[in-house]
Write a structure and sequence with these properties.
The complex is a heterodimer of chains A (239) and B (198). Chain A is α/β, with parallel strands linked by helices. Chain A contains eight helices and nine strands. Chain B folds into two domains: 112 residues, no CATH class; 67 residues, no CATH class. Classes of the chains: A alpha/beta (239), B mainly alpha (198).
């Protein structure tokens, strides 16, 4: 079974409904998820990655349940967190990169060799022993993406991959992502960065608001965001 | 330990970590067998010469790492000046200085990952109780998150200073503890995303 299937998917935390009634079949190569802050975009990504269990319905990734079958999920899905600081677990670059490979069953020796080869291929052989705390924001992002890519998942989930990056770094990351053969599902609140997606999914208050090609969904989204921005203050409290 | 390893490559960097640690243990035990003050002073000179031979940058780094000893040296010196047992005082100060300087030298010339593999090997007899990979993971997480938490503390202190003329002091304890719990949650999720702790 190809692609990612969401069946009547819902998620609630502490009695508050964050996502509800999502039915989607995701099989395009470039998918963008757009929506305002608090619309449930990140929660949807975590459900697809199997980091949290759905409160309702089901997620299937290439035929498996990513929450229950963690081994299967590791081969199929990688996720890049919004803040690389939350993703990095190890003090040095090579340990961070080797970790995922070991989790996939490689020995430490092979994992380190693969890691060093990959660093050398990217012209960063001298990074191997570097301490992660000395890296800049863009370099940390690069490290997190590289750690995911080394695990060679079929789908990569990206949560606002450009937040916190300067313009040259955004250009570099964009180029790198465009060249990837994997399926990418990217969260964004910026319509410009979703323009090249084959399919755009617009979430609003935890529900599907629109779903279609970029040239149909994005103009509606931009107009609606401008309209909301014109209106008075953002005074509603969540919950 | 992250910034303690010297970036200046020395011949000592190439020795195996286990040998260096064993040598350090023997050296420190030996210090307490020496009863001649001149021998101790000679050792101190030899150690200083060795560190100088690795270059001025290395030697000044080594000297900076001895800084935390000064209060102890001061207390010992004052005490022995007062009791008049100057030779005893010199013994204590030299022994302490030599033991710490030698330990620093091992730290400065050993990569963290090599140090950890020695600990993993030493902990192998405990493996039924404490799986070595889990122990290594715990080491790594501690080393990763100490600078991270220090940074969060500094940010909290700055946030406090930005809006208060008073020193933050104990007021940061609760937010810092919450930040640590937050970091733990995030690390747990990051672990899950790439295969958990086993």
């Amino acid at each position: 079974m190809a692609g990612i299937t969401l069946r009547d998917l819902g998620y609630a935390a502490a009695g508050k409904v964050i996502l509800a009634g999502l039915n989607l079949q995701l099989d395009q190569r470039r998918i963008a998820i757009i929506g305002r802050n608090g619309s449930g975009k990140t929660t949807l990504l975590r459900l697809i990655a199997g980091l949290v269990a759905p409160s309702h319905g089901a997620v299937t990734v290439e035929g498996i349940d990513p929450y229950r079958d963690r081994k299967g999920a590791l081969q199929r899905i990688g996720i890049l967190f919004q803040n690389p600081e939350h993703q990095i677990l190890f003090p040095t670059v090579e340990e961070e990169l080797a970790f995922g490979l070991r989790q996939q069953g490689m020995t430490q020796k092979d994992a380190l060799r693969r890691t060093r080869d990959a660093l050398a291929a990217e012209g960063r052989a001298h990074w191997a022993q570097a301490s992660v705390s000395t890296l800049s924001g863009g370099q940390k992002q690069w490290l997190c993406l590289q750690a995911v890519l080394l695990m060679a998942p079929e789908t990569i989930l990206l949560d606002e991959p450009f937040s916190g990056l300067d313009l040259p770094a955004i250009a570099r990351v964009t180029r790198r992502l465009e060249a990837l053969p994997q399926r990418l599902i990217t969260i964004s609140h910026d319509p410009a960065s979703a323009a090249k997606a084959e399919r755009v999914i617009w979430l609003e208050a935890g529900r599907l608001h629109a779903d279609g090609p970029a040239d149909q969904v994005l103009p509606q989204f931009t107009a609606e965001m401008a309209r909301i921005g014109e209106a008075d203050a953002d005074a509603d409290l969540a919950g | 330990m992250l910034t303690l390893t010297s970036p200046v490559e020395t011949p000592l960097h190439r020795l195996p970590a286990g040998a260096k640690l064993a040598g350090l243990a023997v050296f420190t035990l030996g210090l307490f067998q020496i009863s001649n003050l001149w021998v101790l002073a000679g050792l101190a000179l030899a150690l200083a010469a060795l560190q100088l031979s690795f270059g001025r940058r290395f030697a000044s780094h080594a000297l900076r790492m001895l800084k935390p000893l000064w209060p102890f040296v001061l207390v010992l010196a004052l005490w022995h000046l007062w009791t008049g047992a100057l030779a005893d005082g010199a013994f204590l100060v030299l022994r302490m200085g030599l033991a710490v300087a030698a330990a620093n030298l091992v730290t400065m010339t050993t990569r963290l990952s090599d140090m950890l593999s020695v600990f993993e090997m030493l902990a192998r007899p405990l493996s039924p109780l404490l799986p070595p990979r889990r122990l290594a993971m715990a080491f790594a997480l501690v080393i990763r998150f100490i600078p991270n938490l220090a940074e969060r503390m500094a940010l909290l202190a700055q946030a406090h200073r930005a809006r208060s003329a008073r020193r933050p002091g104990w007021r940061l304890v609760v937010p810092a503890a919450l930040a640590a719990l937050d970091a733990a949650d995030q690390a747990a999720e990051a672990l899950r995303a790439r295969g958990g702790a086993d």
